[in-house]
Amino acid sequence: MGFFSRLFPPRADGKPISDEWTVLPEDNASELVLFGDDAATLMLQLDIDDAIASHQAWSQRLQDVLEGTPDAAMQPAMAHDDTCCHLGQWLHGAGRAPLEHYPAYHMLVRRHRYFHAQAAEMVALVQAGDLAQAAQVHKACRHAGSQITLLLHELQRGLGR
Fold it and tell me: Which of 21, 44, 98, 113 has CA 20 to 30 A from 129's CA?
């Protein structure tokens, strides 16, 4: 059983997970595992390795902006939009229905949203010339990016890949 699946099994009643997910579940009876057509469909819709590489590229773009490399497309409003990347589009689109009853999915969505919020703040700080504070915020981006990668690997294991 995967690490996050033990901590956050899906609800038995299939209802969405509450925003309050700080309390550990009473049991660890379920794992983020999909079978048959559901797993095949999700694997076709999202190449998880590509999603990981794509988000790592986002992190590198942020590092480049922090180090002074101009990126006209990287504006705070764009960076804040968690649907501006392939992973965000999938999470809020095709990936939502088959996964939304898994708490790990909601954790992934929250971490992804947080990553983009921190990215927007970092870009705004760079534009304002506050590089020291921008570097601190960039650390939060990197940390959230690592958590996204871990959750995507958990999803990948659940899909049997």
Answer: 113
